[in-house]
């Protein structure tokens, strides 16, 4: 099935901006900070441990500020990234930018070892972790707080309700969910307004099409993580490379442009430890795909 690719905005509407939660404007390419952890010699990619603070803290701070200066307004982290060190890094780096940037973080996963990511949805634990996130980020209110994973051992209503209580106390602006199905999302929506869903999704991994469609109809941001994990078709003679040559863009920019073209509520958050790659990724906002090119990528991807 070919998806509706008509993303032409109404007159006066900037297609590179999305109103998160209806009241928080962010650029449609954010920055995922998961890779700003560990050091030389540590595993990368899917095997990355995300266990230790970055070996070169000064370089990580500089990269985050480069992102802000380049126009990134949505930064994504989690309390589980380097056991809170990721939040501390982000809080320090973005302090000079104040309300010009928005920070999303996540609670609901514990890290008993470098290789374990274990959901924990006890409401008291979720509230405690949010309080710690506030301290580490150096803010009085978290712009977007995700439940990192739903814990099957606790009712969804209790987990979402804990974050809803934080929202009512003014400590959380908007609520998000990560790696959820449509059924889970609908159950959560019966408890609190959901502003964003962050699921694994890219040109080669499209198992969450139903969630993309549901969020589009509800005005909920869909935030794909690993947005440039393109698979075998990303080779030099693959469909992404062919379209990239046609439009004068890089393959990474082309993959991101496909996401942006897929629907106007999609906000990719590519991560990188390279300033050059960061700027390359942001360049996808200026890439235009024809309907034929979009369909070809979708069919061959």
Please summarize the sheet with the most strands: 7 strands, parallel
User: How confident is the prediction overall: mean pLDDT?
Assistant: 93
Percent of residues in beta strands? Answer: 15-25%
The low-pLDDT segments are 1-7
CATH class: Alpha Beta
Structural class per helix/strand content? Answer: alpha/beta
Per CATH, the architecture is Alpha-Beta Barrel
Number of strands: 11
Radius of gyration: 18 Å
**How many H/I helices?**
10
Helix content: 25-40%
Distance between the termini: 13 Å
**Count of all domains:** 1
Could you name the CATH homologous superfamily? NADP-dependent oxidoreductase domain
Notes on the structure:
With 301 residues, the chain is of the alpha/beta class. It has one domain (17-229, 264-272): TIM Barrel (Alpha-Beta Barrel), CATH 3.20.20. The chain has ten helices and eleven strands. A seven-stranded parallel beta sheet has the order 3-4-5-8-9-10-11. Strand 3, helix 1 (57-69) and strand 4 (74-76) form a beta-alpha-beta unit. Helix 1 crosses helix 2 (85-94) and helix 7 packs across helix 8 (251-262). The radius of gyration is 18 Å and the shape is globular.
In short:
This protein is of the alpha/beta class. Helices cover 36% and strands 15% of the residues.
Brief descriptors of the model:
about 300 residues; alpha/beta; TIM Barrel; seven-stranded parallel sheet; two-stranded antiparallel ribbon; 11 strands; about 35% helix; globular; disordered N terminus
Give the helix/strand layout.
Blueprint: E1 17-20, E2 24-27, E3 31-32, H1 57-69, E4 74-76, H2 85-94, E5 102-107, E6 109-110, E7 118-119, H3 123-137, E8 142-147, H4 156-168, E9 172-178, H5 182-189, E10 196-200, H6 209-218, E11 221-225, H7 239-247, H8 251-262, H9 275-282, H10 291-300
Parallel strand pairs: 3-4, 4-5, 5-8, 8-9, 9-10, 10-11
Antiparallel strand pairs: 1-2, 6-7
């Amino acid at each position: 099935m070919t998806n509706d690719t008509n993303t032409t905005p109404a007159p006066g509407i900037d297609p590179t901006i999305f109103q998160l939660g209806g009241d928080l404007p962010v650029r449609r390419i954010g920055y995922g900070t998961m890779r700003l952890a560990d050091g030389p010699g540590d595993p990368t990619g899917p095997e990355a441990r995300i266990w230790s603070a970055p070996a070169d803290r000064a370089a990580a701070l500089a990269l985050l500020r480069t992102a802000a200066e380049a126009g990134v307004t949505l930064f994504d982290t989690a309390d589980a990234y380097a056991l809170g060190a990721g939040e501390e890094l982000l809080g320090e780096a973005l302090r000079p930018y104040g309300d010009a940037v928005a920070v999303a973080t996540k609670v609901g996963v514990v890290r008993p070892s470098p290789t374990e990511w274990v959901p924990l949805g006890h409401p008291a634990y979720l509230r405690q972790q949010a309080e710690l996130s506030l301290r580490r980020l150096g803010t009085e209110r978290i712009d977007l707080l995700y439940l990192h994973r739903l814990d099957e051992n606790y009712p969804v209503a209790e987990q979402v309700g804990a974050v809803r209580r934080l929202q009512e106390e003014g400590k959380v602006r908007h609520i998000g969910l990560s790696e959820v199905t449509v059924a889970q999302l609908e159950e959560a929506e019966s408890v609190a307004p959901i502003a964003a869903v962050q699921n694994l999704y890219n040109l080669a991994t499209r198992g969450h099409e139903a969630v993309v469609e549901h969020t589009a109809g509800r005005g909920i941001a869909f935030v794909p993580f690993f947005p440039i994990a393109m698979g075998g078709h990303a080779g030099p003679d693959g469909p992404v490379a062919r379209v990239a040559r046609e439009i004068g863009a890089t393959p990474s920019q082309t993959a991101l442009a496909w996401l942006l073209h897929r629907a106007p509520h999609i906000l990719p958050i590519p991560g990188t430890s390279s300033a050059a790659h960061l700027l390359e990724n942001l360049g996808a906002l200026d890439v235009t795909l024809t309907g034929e090119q979009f369909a070809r990528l979708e069919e061959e991807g």
